[in-house]
Design goal:
The chain is built from twelve helices and eight strands. It is α/β, with parallel strands linked by helices. Strand 7 (about 250-255), helix 10 (about 260-275) and strand 8 (about 280-285) form a beta-alpha-beta unit.
Length: about 325
């Protein structure tokens, strides 16, 4: 099938990646991929180098379990400011609460935000609703502790990328429907929203990039089992299934024109507009899934990061330091 090309500068970076990182994730490879995800340099060194303090807290998760959250603040910070519940990528099957550090660390260092990043439990060991309920529990804990955390309760958002973006959207729906914590916004980066996987983009990018249709099928099946693609899937697990998006907070969505999630992300933005929700959508030309993390040195990545920073500052009334 004819498909939009990768931007040349991004394609060069993609081709330079180890083949291991571009292979389809099958059920048999989940443990292997998890074991290979070792940060370099180590997280404590990265945080220390930019003057960020980390505090780990164990909180109640779904169904009586315990989960870990890490609270990240600028060293010497005082007063109150913006807060972010950060939900990591990985299709809900891989990754940890520091997987997307380059995307959100500048919110701490540049905007003096407090970031709470959550170690939600992963599928298939913990299938739906564990991931989204763990993340909602982290949101409730954050909202209950805003005073101690130094967060302005009127400037709290939820954010996530890829699988974390889908979970962030699910958390926003749960907060609305349960009359839970009020959110000032949701920041959804190339979010994974639809288990049905039947868009043109899904067919165009069945192969290629760093998250293909096979990996997507593995992830959704791990989360939902035999319910994947049926009528028995919650809107909180697959937010694209929601028929009513009214009452959601202002939203930022971005994706690449050359990635699997393009059409479901565009459709979600359109559904938000139809429901009267303010939403900002960016489809970056030639961008593959997660391109800004793979190729941060490129002009397209710089543009994507700049657009997010502008939305963050405007939505939260934050000024860069």
């Amino acid at each position: 099938m004819t498909r939009p090309p990768f931007a040349p500068e991004l394609e060069a970076a993609l081709n330079a990646m180890p083949a291991f990182k571009r292979q389809t994730i099958t059920p048999e490879r989940i443990a292997e991929v998890r074991g290979a995800d070792v940060p370099d340099p180590p997280i404590p060194r990265v945080l220390a180098d930019v003057g960020v303090v980390r505090r780990d807290v164990t909180i109640p998760g779904h169904h009586g379990g315990e989960i870990m959250v890490s609270v990240l603040t600028r060293e010497g910070r005082s007063g109150t400011g913006p807060g972010v519940l950060q939900i990591h990528s990985g299709g809900m099957i891989i990754g940890d609460r520091f997987s997307d550090l380059p995307q959100w660390l500048p919110w701490v260092t540049d905007f003096d935000a407090v970031v709470v990043t959550v170690e939600y439990r992963l599928a298939p060991e913990h299938p739906d609703p564990y991931p989204v309920e763990d993340c909602y529990a982290a949101l409730c804990w954050t909202a209950e502790n805003v005073r101690d955390l130094g967060i302005d309760p009127e400037r709290l958002i939820v954010a996530g990328a890829s699988g974390g973006g889908g979970l962030a959207a699910g958390v926003a729906l749960l907060a609305r429907d349960r009359r839970g914590p009020a959110l000032a916004g949701q920041l959804l980066l190339c979010p994974m929203l639809d288990d049905r996987d039947d868009t043109v983009a899904a067919a165009q990018f069945a192969l290629g990039g760093i998250w293909d249709r096979g990996s997507n099928t593995t992830a959704w099946t791990s989360l939902l089992g035999d319910r994947r693609g049926t009528g028995d899937v919650s809107i909180y697990a697959a937010p694209a299934r929601a028929q009513d998006l009214s009452g959601l907070p202002t939203t930022f969505i971005d994706c690449g024109s050359a990635e699997l999630f393009r059409d479901e992300d565009v459709a979600y933005a359109s559904a938000l507009w139809a429901a009267g929700v303010q939403a900002e959508l960016h489809v970056w030309p030639g961008g593959f899934h997660g391109f800004d993390l793979v190729a941060p040195h490129t002009d397209l990545s710089a543009s994507a990061v700049s657009a997010r920073r502008q939305w963050f500052a405007r939505t939260l009334g934050a000024t860069a330091r």
